Amino acid sequence: MATSTDALSDVTASASSLRRFLHGLPGVDQVGAEERAARLATRSIKTTAKRFALDLAVSMVDLTTLEGQDTPGKVRALGAKAQRPDPTDPTVPHVAALCVYPDLVATAKAAVAGGGVRVASVATAFPSGRAALDVKLADVAYAVREGADEVDMVIDRGAFLAGDYVTVHDQIAAVKQACGDAHLKVILETGELATYDNVRRASWLAMLAGADFVKTSTGKVSPAATLPVTLVLLEAVRDFRAATGRQVGVKAAGGIRAAKDAIRYLVTVNETAGEDWLTPEWFRFGASSLLNDLLMQRRKLATGRYSGTDYFTLD
Fold first, then answer.
1. What is the per-residue pLDDT across 12-39, written as a single tens digit (0 to 9) for each?
2. Annotated catalytic, 55?
3. Is 152 a catalytic residue?
4. pLDDT per residue over 277-302, tens digit each?
5. Which of 99, 197, 246, 251 has its CA 20 to 30 A from that of 236?
6. Is 149 a catalytic residue?
């Protein structure tokens, strides 16, 4: 296995070298990964540490709306919530980003202006990724032109599963170039990759191509984010930094709705990749409903009682 930046630069020189490298990565022990994730999920966090974890999780949320019925009004409302998640409590941190479709990026940008919240946009024929490369690049260029700070692209899972790693690599690299200064999050759609070994290979492939983040899923396919899959991604970014010196983030997206689950992910981040990843710059939750539960649990700590489910705005 390559252990230096120079050695890794040769990996993508040909289809055969790329395949040899990816299939030479250590295999994932499925039972071991699932048992470790289960053990980490039992960790208990109390009082002050829990309050810190809840605030950290809020700051890592990419507040997301990706529906055909999205309207400018809905995006503006989410923008206000992204900046002030609980209008009655100014100590609640703002979220990391507001994530929308490309045609609503300008609306989102105006809605969060000056508040420290970034705007993310899905692109590249999300969620299927079934489009010609020039169409994908036009999608990205439009999102960036509208003001997106981050782009969430989907890989061609068909090409990956067929073993056409060069096509996947080259598409990611082209999208990265089209992003300009915008950060690139590469969605692996892990629920369609079938095995943890494929998840590890896809993670390394995305990072070799220039990804700033590797992301579990679109949220449109089941299963979406799981703790064992996220653990595999965290191991990959940890090992990639050890090999190259470049740090890559992880985004767990889809199906994470409860504060207790978010805290389990934070424990897994700390125990697998380390404290360097415990910031919004390097770890994100892609979520729509998670934020409300984080706010409810936070208020419970402060007041000793739960707020009603209609206390916070519905997303």
1. 989 999 999 999 999 999 999 999 999 9
2. no
3. yes
4. 999 999 999 988 899 999 999 998 88
5. 99
6. no
SS3 99: strand
Q: Which of 136, 176, 185, 251 is catalytic?
A: 251
The answer to whether domain 18-303 has CATH 3.20.20.70 is yes
Q: Are 99 and 290 in contact (CB under 8 A)?
A: no
Question: Among 109, 149, 215, 261, which one carries the catalytic annotation?
Answer: 215
Q: Catalytic residue among 62, 152, 239, 293, which?
A: 152
pTM for the model stands at 0.94
Alpha carbon distance 295, 279 (integer Å): 19
Q: Residue-wise over 165-195: b if at least 16 C-beta within 10 A, else e?
A: bbbbbebbbbbbebbeebbbbbbbbbbbbee
The verdict on whether omega for the bond into residue 72 sits within 30 degrees of 0, i.e. cis, is no
Domain ranges of the chain: 18-303
